Amino acid sequence: MDTLEEVIQSLTSDEVRRFKILSNRFKATEEKKLLILFDSIRSEKYSDKEDQLVMDLYQATDPATKNRYYRLRNKLLDNIEKSLVFYHFKYKDSIHAYYDVQLAIMFKERGQHELSRYFLKKAEKKAEALDQFHILEIIYGEYVQLAMKNIDLDIEEIIQKREENLHKIAILRRNTEAIAIIKQKLKKSRFSKSRGSVLEMLDELKSQIEKTADIFNSTEGKILIFQTVSTILHNKAAYSHLTEYLYETIGEFEKNNLFSKANHSMRLLMRLRLIISLYKTYHLPEALEQLAIFEEEMVMYHRQYYHTYLFNYFNIKIYSQKTLGQSRESLETIHHALSIPEIKNHPLNANIIRISLAGEFFNLGEFEKALQEIQQIQASDGYELMEPQFQMHLDIFKMVLHYELKMYQENLDAQKKFRKDHKRLLKLDETAKTSRFVEILLRMSDGALEGRRISLRSAYRNFEESFDMQKEDEGEIINPHLFLKSHLEGQSYYKLFLELMSGRIEYVH
Q1: 206 burial class (0-12, 13-18, 19+ CB within 10 angstroms)?
Q2: CB proximity list for 238: less than 8 A, separation 6 or greater
């Protein structure tokens, strides 16, 4: 995907609408071609068929015509950039100060110094509110320029503000340099149990970067390091290292009384990431212990962030109980969660909890109840808010339920729509396992409908050899390996699931 395509695919609906409003003001033929090109790229109508797009635009594909086409692409990118700048300069808070500074400079150059000062004051207020220290340095520089034009300004106050701001910039520079070094070191590291811990690496970096020692010692700096380290380790799926790091970090904050009402959100986030890392490494008893502590922390400071983390709390508790074989407790937790207005009235979160309910019904062999839940989820307002991969796995789960309920024809009737609805996802390498599983499931449905046997043992063996059972796809509701094995061996899916999990679950030592 080149830059133009990447920019177009990243646009929000509001950004697309703004671009088209601006473009429609021009009636020239070339401007119309710009919109045609824009819509073609956005819809991926001519994906891998560039010559056909050139032909449709210009009725020719000779070198001179292709040069016109590439100039058109460059112009389209330039117009989109201008549209984005025009739109966000006015409406996005983080760059609004730039907008006012540009106006101040423009009026200064026109000699309208009072107007220039007016916009500088606006910019200063916005930049101060957002701690935009580098923009403030530009603003104070412009104030000095205005003072030289005999504008009535308290130059001594401005210089004092500028000195204080430069001190903040120096601290920010040292801190950002330290974070950049930490990020680079972490991203280049290959984490394994045989290699040194993240804690050792941070201690080594601290001794190497003496001038940035304040970031390692101040509460704000420690929080900044936590955000950086935990995010990178999570993205690299280095959960054992993340667990060790979070236990150490939370322990240090608690020992030195660094947690407070002001940073309570960070306290909850640290605890939540620890719980997730424990869950990912199958230390589920410890995850539930930490979840109990998390529940106590959620009600601190008059439930300051209680509802912010309530969904996360229930979601992890439900999956931990299910994985530990506590089906009755899991069902109770699900019904409790769905009785709380803040979850019940949140369409997306409610649907995710209801997927868990459908999963529990499936584990208990209550396939009709599970199917009813999935159908209600797909008919709800929150369904459209779900990520495409979750929608795809809901359709797959529905196929599984149809098979269990001997509704084989429904699966065969739905396959064309399924492939059309999820065409883009099914092309990706990451969904190869999903595609193969759907193929096998449809063969099973077709065979059952016609009363003929299929070689399920061979299909399962090939599936097992091709795909790792340990790796779960995002949004996956059931384990396809275990589903196939359950039908091959005539065993309960949930029994196989618990056997698999019992081999993984361990305690932190």
Answers
A1: middle
A2: 191, 198
DSSP string covering 257-270: T---STTHHHHHHH
CB 402 within 8 A of CB 408: yes
Confidence of residue 196 (pLDDT cuts 50, 70, 90): low
DSSP assignment of 72-87 equals HHHHHHHHHHHHHHHH
DSSP string, 405-425: TT-HHHHHHHHHHHHHHTHHH
Residues with Cβ within 8 Å of residue 243, at least 6 apart in sequence: 274, 277, 278, 281, 283, 508
Angstrom CA distances, 362 to 316, 402, 440, stand at 19, 12, 20
* pLDDT above 70 (res 396): yes
Kindly give, in sequence order, each residue whose CB lies less than 8 Å from that of residue 18, ignoring residues fewer than 6 positions away. 83, 86, 87
How would residue 43 be classed by pLDDT, with cut points 50, 70 and 90?
confident
pLDDT of residue 255: 94
3-state secondary structure of 44: coil
Tokens of 321: 């109980």
The DSSP secondary-structure symbol of 163 reads H
According to DSSP, residue 62 is labeled S
Backbone angles phi and psi of 181, in degrees to 5: -65, -45
Highest mean pLDDT out of 26-35, 178-187, 213-222, 419-428: 419-428
Distance from C-alpha of 378 to C-alpha of 260, rounded to nearest angstrom: 43
Phi-psi region of 59 (alpha: psi -120 to 50; beta: other; left: phi over 0): left
Distance, in Å, from the CA atom of 444 to the CA atom of 462, rounded to the nearest integer, reads 15
For 286-316, give the secondary structure using H, E and C: HHHHHHHHHHHHHCHHHHCCHHHHHHHHHHH
Q: What pLDDT shows up at residue 508? A: 44
CA proximity to 504, closest of 279, 218, 243: 279
pLDDT of residue 324: 86
> Has this prediction a pTM greater than 0.70?
no
Q: Tell me what pLDDT residue 90 has.
A: 57
To the nearest whole number, what is the mean pLDDT of the chain?
Answer: 87
**CB-CB contact of 418 with 377 (8 Å):** no
Q: In the prediction, which pLDDT does 356 show?
A: 95
Please state the length of the chain: 509
What is the full DSSP assignment across 428-446?
SGGGHHHHHHHHHHHHHHH
**Phi then psi for 151, rounded to 5 degrees?**
-80, 140
pLDDT per residue as tens digits for the range 446-475:
999 988 878 889 989 999 899 887 777 778
